[in-house]
Amino acid sequence: MTDVAPLAERLxxxxxxxxxxxxxxxxxxxxxxPAARAQPQxxxxxxxxxxxxxxxxxxxxxxxxxxxxxxxxxxxGVREVRAAAESAAARLPERTVLFLDEIxxxxxxxxxxxxxxxxxxxxxxxxATTENPAFALNGALLSRTRVVILRPLADAALERxxxxxxGDPLFRPPDRAPLDLDPEARAILLRACDxxxxxxxxxxxxxxxxxxxxxxxxxxxxxxxxxxGEAFRKADKSGDWYYDLLSAMHKSLRGSAPDATLYWVxxxxxxxxxxxxxxxxxxxxxxxxxxxxxxxxxxxxxxxxETYERLGEPEGLxxxxxxxxxxxxxxxxxxxxxxxxxAEREVRNDTSREVPLHLRNAPTTLARQLGHGAGxxxxxxxxxxxxxxxxxxxxxxxxxxxxxxGVRGFEKRLKxxxxxxxxxxxxxxxxxPGDDD
Length: 437
Hints:
This protein is α/β, with parallel strands linked by helices. The protein has 20 helices and seven strands. The chain has four domains: 22-149, Rossmann fold, CATH 3.40.50; 155-233, Helicase, Ruva Protein, domain 3 (Orthogonal Bundle), CATH 1.10.8; 240-329, Zinc Finger, Delta Prime, domain 3 (Up-down Bundle); 358-430, post-AAA+ oligomerization domain-like (Orthogonal Bundle), CATH 1.10.3710.
């Protein structure tokens, strides 16, 4: 490979053992372990960009000692596929592998052209796709191939790829001083590439050329930020930075600081975070932090999310911002959240208690004969719509108080009502038989 080739091409693995980040696929227990890949076979390689689908297809064909015909469904059509198949048939018993990149771009009828050649074994098809094969490919073609999944490259694999790149003559020329990559720039680069090896190498190559032109000995944060441009600010969609932004938004909202909440919401949008992630966090806050202090908050947040889904961007972002400001400004209570934790702890640590007879369903004569529903008092027929003195807890558990209402917002009214009802309970349980009502 010449120096004029892109860095990504120069560093393309030459053997299956050099492929990074696909150990689960190629390892001893993987679907393409050495025994499983010993003979030519038809495969669909499914994975996101920059995971090595093309490299894997080429190296598999090479390991099978087969002739490789490489086409792209973006440019090729039925004529090119038929030509490749007829050429393969003429060369038998030599095996031919047809590598078809972007295979999902073929229409259903174009995919059908592949079927007889694959079925007869004249061609071993390796199709590469970023789309779900279950939706993008014919069932008939899927039944004649094996789908293998390539995972996004983990940080450890990307780190090793960076190390390989730093050994390239671009960074270690024989006649010039070496070029280094500082740790902070390295971390930013790993985030910016979004697990795409090709993107990582392209960013790194451009940054190296810029550093050389400026006679810099190191690719640093500022220089890399200049290369990445908008991607620099939107780089970290996972990891601490991402979670820190979400945490800052949530804590500002919980702290009733609408301006700070809005600032962090906009920071999340500007960083390219999926607005649905913001919507989910807002919905959680509406339930966990606002709760019954403002029962309207949950519905308002759901409506904001629905508005975003209907309007899209940028108009729909305003609805989410509106919900965020409202949640930050309104009354707060975590009473239901704490009550749920108490009840959850009780249930997990307790036995499975029987449902009391008066609370059981009684849809049949037998159920009623067994006492199901016996003695149940219908609250709507009682004064104040409440049956004083009735227990709804399992026998032996006693009365529990998981929910302790707060004193803010609508929950203040709930607190007053529950205190009144419990007073009715106390009077009902202390009333002696024969007492006047």
